[in-house]
Amino acid sequence: MDDSERPDRPDPDADAAEIAEWMEEDFGRAVAEGIANAVDEDDPDDKHEVVEVEILDRERGEVVGTIDKDGNLNTESEALRCVSQEYIEEGVPVLVPTTYENEAGETVHADAEVIVEPGTTGFVRAFVDELPSPFDCNSETLADLPVHDEE
């Protein structure tokens, strides 16, 4: 989609409903483009491998950066950079369901904490899940992101 097809940004004196509608249209379009670009055309089974997502600042109502599965953050937002740095350098802690046998031979179901590092399956999902408010991504995009798979 070229710039002529993008929804016009509302005037500064627009009401909240008009701004919210613009945010959803423009952000949804940007996310759809990102998903379309992320599909590996050589692998017909690779329809959910989102390589990069756009990060929205809900308070400002705009996309403030992108993150890819390798941990490459592209942003001019110092706040986003600050809250992201630790996750990019050290990975994101996530809880994964596990089962094991205890000393009595009983099967125990519990959550184990693992670190999902950049470059591994589920990093983008874990990264976006950990971002504090006001940072977020479109909920439809979040639903399509692969989760960490403990193999």
Task: Give a quick rundown of the structure.
The protein is an alpha+beta fold and 151 residues long. It has helices at residues 16-38, 78-90, 123-130, 139-144, and strands spanning 52-57, 62-68, 73-75, 92-101, 107-116, 135-136.
Structure description:
It is built from four helices and six strands, in the order αβββαββαβα. The protein is an alpha+beta fold and 151 residues long. The longest helix has 23 residues, at 16-38. The protein is elongated. Residues 38-42 and 44-48 have low confidence and may be disordered.
Task: Tell me, rounded to a whole number, the average pLDDT.
Answer: 78
Radius of gyration: 18 Å
Strand runs, count: 6
Total number of helical segments?
A: 4
Please describe the biggest sheet, giving its number of strands, its sense, and whether it closes into a barrel.
4 strands, antiparallel
The secondary-structure element order is HEEEHEEHEH
Shape verdict = elongated
The low-confidence runs, each spanning 5 or more residues with pLDDT under 50, are 38-42, 44-48
Oligomer: single chain
Strand order of the largest sheet: 3-2-1-6
Strand residue percentage: 25-35%
Determine the fraction of residues in helical runs and give it as a percent range. 25-40%
- Which class do the helix and strand fractions yield? alpha+beta
Report, as a whole number of angstroms, the end-to-end distance.
39 Å
